[in-house]
Amino acid sequence: MAPTTSLVMNGWYIGAWSDEVGRTLMQRWIVGRPVCFYRLQDGTVTALEDRCPHRRFPLSLGRLDGDVIECNYHGYRIDGGGVCVGVAEQPDTPRASVHRFPLVERDGIVWIWPGDADRADPGLLPDTSWLSDPEWTHVHGVVPLKARHVLLVENLLDLTHETFLHPSTIGNAAVAATPIDVTSEGDRVSFTRHMIAIEAPPFYEKSMGLTSPIDRWQDGDFYAPGVFQLNIRLAPTGTEEPEGFHMKVIYGMTPATETETHDFFALGRDYRVDDEELSRFQLDQQLAVMKEDVDALEAQEVMVATETVRAPESSIRSDVAGLRGRRLLEKMAAREAAPGTASAGRPRRPSATAAGAGT
C-alpha cells in the first residue's frame, strides 16, 4: 500500500527555531493552516491563525503596534491572544477573534499544537535538553521539502538508504548490511543498529580523525506525528562504552500542506564544543546530506502522486521501522477523522476559529 496523504493535527510539531521568531511578523504554514508567529513585548512567542477575521487578509502582512497586529487591509486590530480590540480610525470594536495556537518554547525550539487545544499536553514533548546543555554544541536550520511528510518519516526510520544515497559522507556498505532491532510503544517507534568493526565513513574520518575499524551505533526514536531523534556513538573498535564520540540529531518533520514539509534539523556533538571551524564543516556536511535526501524524496513524491494504478508494494526486513511509523500515522489520522472527534471533518485550509489556548 502506498503512503497516505493524511495529516495528523493533534500532536506537537516544531513550528520554528527560537532564533527565527522576533518582532517581525512571520508566516509559516503548519499542517495546512497559515500561522503568524511573533514575539510579544515581554519576549514570549505567540502564534495566531494568519487570517484576519474581517476578510481573511493575512495578518502577517499587517503592522505590529506594541503587541497588537493592525491588519493592512481594513485596519482590524488583533491582540496577542487573537482577540479583536478595535478597528483603526473607526469607533467600532466588533466581537471577533482568531485562533491562538498552543505553544511551548523550550531548548531553542518553538513547539506548536495545530489541533484540539484542549489536548495540548506539554508532557508529551520529547526530551531535547541536550540542545541547551553546555557540554554539547550544535548547528541547526530548516530545509523546505516538496514531498509529503510520511515519506520523510520512512526515510529516517530506514537508514539503510545511507549506503546508497550518501556514500561520500555518512554511508557505506555496513549500514545496509547490519540488521536493526525495532520496538514500538504508544506513539513511538524505536530502532537500534550497532555496527561493529566497520569501515569509517568519510564524514567521520574528516570530523573526528577516526580510522578503521570503528564501532558505530545508531539508536533512533520516532515520536509521532513529527519528531525523530537519533543518538550516535562512534569509537575505535574495542573502546569501552560509554567512551567515544557522541552525536545527536533531531529532525522536526512538520507538514506545511499535504505534499510539502518543513524539515527542521539540529546536529549536536559532545566533543570539540568550542571548535567553530568544525561546526561550519558539520553544518555544510549536514546540508549536503539533506540535499541528497530532498532530491530523492521529491522524486519519490512525483511517483507516488502520479500513480493511478497501484501495483503491489514490496518490502523487506529493513522496512519494519518505516512501516510501523507509516501505520502509526495512518492510525492517528483515522482516529481524528472518525465521526464525533474534535478534528473530524476539518478543512484542509480552515478559516479562522475562536481563540485557543496559549503558552
Describe it for me?
The protein is of the alpha+beta class. 20% of the residues lie in helices and 31% in strands. It is built from 6 helices and 17 strands. It has helices at residues 149-157, 162-165, 173-177, 202-208, 276-305, 320-337, and strands spanning 13-17, 26-30, 33-39, 45-49, 63-65, 68-70, 76-78, 84-87, 103-106, 109-112, 137-145, 181-185, 188-198, 214-223, 227-236, 245-257, 260-269. The strands form 4 sheets. It has a 7-stranded antiparallel beta sheet with strand order 11-17-16-15-14-13-12. It has a 4-stranded antiparallel beta sheet with strand order 5-6-7-8, with no helix packed on it. Helix 1 packs antiparallel against helix 6 (320-337). The chain is globular, with a radius of gyration of 22 Å. It starts with 12 loop residues before the first strand and ends in a 22-residue tail after the last helix. The model is unreliable at 344-359 (pLDDT under 50).
Brief write-up:
The chain is α+β, with helices and mostly antiparallel strands and 359 residues long. It contains six helices and 17 strands.
Q: What distinguishing features does this structure have?
A:
four-stranded antiparallel beta sheet; single chain; alpha+beta; 359 residues; 17 strands; 6 helices
